[in-house]
UniProtKB/TrEMBL annotation, chain A:
The lineage of its organism: Bacteria, Bacillati, Actinomycetota, Actinomycetes, Geodermatophilales. GO terms for molecular function: branched-chain amino acid transmembrane transporter activity. Residues 1-31 are annotated as: Disordered. The chain crosses the membrane at residues 47-65, 71-92, 124-148, 155-174, 212-231, 262-285, 291-324, 345-365. The keyword Secreted does not apply. Its main location: membrane. It is found in: Cell membrane. This is Branched-chain amino acid transport system permease protein. Keywords: Cell membrane, Membrane, Transmembrane, Transmembrane helix. It is a multi-pass membrane protein. GO terms for cellular component: plasma membrane. Pfam families: BPD_transp_2.
Automatic annotation (TrEMBL), chain B:
It is a multi-pass membrane protein. One of its GO terms (biological process) is amino acid transport. The chain crosses the membrane at residues 6-27, 34-54, 60-82, 94-115, 143-162, 189-208, 214-233, 266-285. It comes from the Bacteria. The keyword Cytoplasm does not apply. Its main location: membrane. It is found in: Cell membrane. The keyword Zinc-finger does not apply. This is Branched-chain amino acid transport system permease protein. Belongs to the binding-protein-dependent transport system permease family. LivHM subfamily. The lineage of its organism: Bacteria, Bacillati, Actinomycetota, Actinomycetes, Geodermatophilales. CDD domains: TM_PBP1_LivH_like (cd06582).
Length: 387, 293
């Protein structure tokens, strides 16, 4: 799609469709690399390019985790699970135009599954536990998705909001099984011998449980983003955009709107399930208070700030979710607030940012930069032809 | 049997509050096609303002009046400042803006008033009337709640039916361009609509606070969901539908609370919402088919 569009026409063409979340999702429309633009050092083949980026990111992540202290490693785990969930949500909202406020609840499904499975006498391998969490959350996502496929805009937001409020109640109802208010503590998985050896030979440092979990989180993040990036650049991604922008035209082209919407919800829910599983390991506790509406709204904040439909934007937004509150909390405590109150300042800021971004730069960080870059290139191209 | 009667009474009373809240949502939806997800947080903020006045020694009634006035101002200011730019635009943007307001206002309450629960003393006795030797779930305070909701509804009906302002508001909700051509200041009507809705939302907050007796900054979270479900039950477009939807939902949730568990009301609301949306997407009172494209 983006290969055919001239850069000059795409921002305005996007704004012309009134029923679509047009400018807000500009971040998802442009091509991911400069594949259309000629000058590029990256391979043209999408799979190769994404593999190359994956390897580079993996190397970068190892360097980051080995050169920083354990406290920072733990925070990387937090960024990872926020980013995984935000990545799934940005696919749903940015590419397919469906908003979901229920992803916090879907994360709870993944987290509780992980906590229950790891609590067994002889826990299954971690990979199996994670896959089970993903599978169960996808199933829940499919059920929600079937209902969600027929809704749009505020109706969908309200229905998923009801999910976010209602689902944690189940943990209270099945108190003996799901732990009630206190929730379940998550037993940490043993780290394998080979991991100890690898870390020793890499940096000579002594590996710890925190580091092992940080590596698991980052691995999950990279795998998820690799899969999502490929999906977004494939026929599936193009179909989702068509469903988002022009329902009737898509239907005339033989696209079954409902089926593709459910698929988007399932993919998105799978990411949320994995995020929940990682959350269970990182936080080591799954309790209803951890999965309130505020979690879902934080995820929405992350993807809107970063730019709807952009994985890079989701990652930036997730990093903000982790690091911004610390800065603000310190600022609040220096103003003589108690800790709980100071922690709330960050949510005031999230909310204000959400409103401001929607009013002044609906394409978000990545989308705005991309739009500005495309405009400039179009101007340069136009200048070249008239001269 | 006595339990059933008490649950029904309780359901009607909470249902009346849901109805008021749903009415506030419908007011805004009709004029601007926006669901105000910040309604609950706005109501909570004005309730906390009233509560801090009451705690400083003022009477409940001063608090109530201040809460309603604060709601009026808050609604108007929010409409003018942040809603006007996204009105008529992509629906996703408007949804996200109201959600941003939701999260910001709710956190602001915590920052201003603290995160702890506070006691909220009801204006009238909350001890139920006794019939024979059994206590009914009907107290002077619940009668006040019911009366206040009925008064507001009657007031709104009168406003829309019998006044020029109400006519102008209906006109601008029906067709903005036509109304503008006929000399209606549509912008003002939209601001007024938001302000009125915020007043009703504030009242719902004050009433529900007296019913639950303890309020935390998040105490309206479930009300926004229940209010939305009630509004959708009635079709989101019809004030009468919102009232009936509120009462039906209040009854249904009261039975769930009484016969199953308090923790399941959220799930029950979700199930009701999904079933209604799948079976009758236009609500129980829809007469027209939705048109697409």
């Amino acid at each position: 799609m983006s290969d055919l569009q001239t850069p000059a026409s795409s921002p305005t063409a996007g704004a012309a469709t009134s029923d679509a979340p047009s400018t807000a999702t500009a971040a998802s429309n442009a091509s991911s690399a400069q594949a259309a633009g000629g000058r590029t050092f990256l391979p043209r083949n999408t799979l190769l390019r994404h593999l190359l980026v994956l390897v580079l990111c993996a190397v970068g992540a190892v360097v980051l985790l080995e050169t920083t202290d354990l406290g920072f490693n733990a925070q990387v785990g937090y960024v990872a699970f926020y980013a995984i969930a935000a990545g799934g949500l940005t696919v749903l909202t940015g590419l397919n135009g469906q908003i979901s406020l229920g992803h916090g609840a879907l994360m709870a499904v993944g987290a509780y599954t992980t906590a229950l499975l790891l609590d067994a006498e002889e826990p299954l391998p971690l990979v199996v536990v994670f896959l089970a969490a993903v599978a169960l959350t996808s199933l829940v996502g499919a059920i929600v998705g079937v209902a969600a496929a027929r809704l749009h805009g505020p109706y969908l937001a309200g229905a998923t909001l009801a999910l976010a409020v209602g689902l944690p109640g189940l943990a209270l109802y099945y108190r003996s099984f799901l732990g009630g208010e206190q929730g379940l503590t998550v037993s940490s998985p043993d780290r394998p011998e080979w991991f100890t050896d690898v870390i020793r030979s890499l940096s000579g440092g002594s590996p710890s449980g925190v580091k092992w979990i940080a590596y698991i989180s980052v691995a999950c993040l990279l795998i998820t983003y690799f899969l999502l990036a490929n999906l977004m650049r494939s026929r599936v991604g193009r179909t989702w955009r068509a469903v988002r922008d022009q329902e009737v035209a898509a239907e005339l082209a033989g696209i079954d709107l409902g089926r593709w919407r459910v698929l988007a919800f399932v993919v998105s829910a799978a990411a949320a399930g994995l995020a929940g599983a990682v959350l269970a390991l990182v936080v080591r506790l799954t309790a209803p208070t951890g999965f309130t509406i505020v979690l879902s709204l934080s995820l929405l904040t992350a993807i809107v700030i970063g730019g709807l439909g952009s994985l890079l934007g989701a990652l930036i937004g997730a990093a903000l979710l982790v690091f911004l509150p610390r800065v603000l909390r310190d600022a609040g405590e220096s103003l003589d607030m108690d800790a709980a109150q100071a922690a709330e300042i960050s949510y005031v800021v999230y909310g204000v940012i959400l409103v401001l971004v929607m009013l002044f730069a609906p394409a978000g960080l990545v989308g705005s930069i991309r739009l500005a870059w495309m405009k400039q290139r179009a101007r340069r191209a136009a200048g070249g032809t008239t001269r | 049997m006595r339990e059933f009667i008490n649950l029904t009474l309780g359901g009607v009373i909470t249902g009346a509050v849901y109805a008021a809240f749903a009415l506030a949502l419908v007011l805004i939806w009709r004029s601007t096609r926006i669901v105000n997800f910040a309604q609950g947080a706005m109501g909570a903020l004005t309730t906390f303002i009233a509560l801090s006045l009451i705690e400083s020694g003022q009477s409940y009634w001063v608090g109530l009046v201040v809460a309603l006035l604060a709601g009026l101002v808050l609604g108007a200011v929010i409409e003018r400042l942040v809603i006007r730019p996204v009105e008529g635009g992509p629906e996703l943007n408007a949804v996200i803006v109201t959600l941003g307001l939701f999260i910001a206002i709710q956190a602001l309450i915590s920052v201003l008033f603290g995160v702890n629960q506070r006691a909220f003393v009801a204006p009238f006795s909350t001890i139920g009337f006794t019939v024979g030797d059994s206590n009914l779930a009907l107290s002077p305070n619940t009668l006040f709640t019911l009366g206040a909701v009925l008064l507001v509804m009657a007031g709104l009906v009168a406003l829309f039916r019998f006044t020029r302002v109400g006519l102008a508001m209906r006109a601008s909700a029906f067709g903005q361009e036509v109304a503008r051509l006929l000399g209606v200041r549509v912008g003002r009507m939209l601001t007024l609509g938001w302000a009125l809705a915020a007043v009703v939302g504030s009242l719902a907050g004050m009433l529900i606070a007296a019913e639950v007796t303890f309020v935390a900054p998040t105490f309206m979270d479930s009300l926004i969901v229940f209010g939305f479900v009630a509004a959708v039950l009635g079709g989101l477009d019809s004030p009468i539908g919102a009232v009936v939807g509120g009462l039906l939902l209040g009854l249904a949730l009261s039975y769930v609370r009484g016969y199953f568990s308090d923790t399941l009301t959220g799930m029950a609301a979700l199930v009701i919402l999904v079933v209604v949306l799948l079976v009758r997407p236009g609500g129980l009172f829809s007469t027209t088919q939705t048109r697409r494209a």
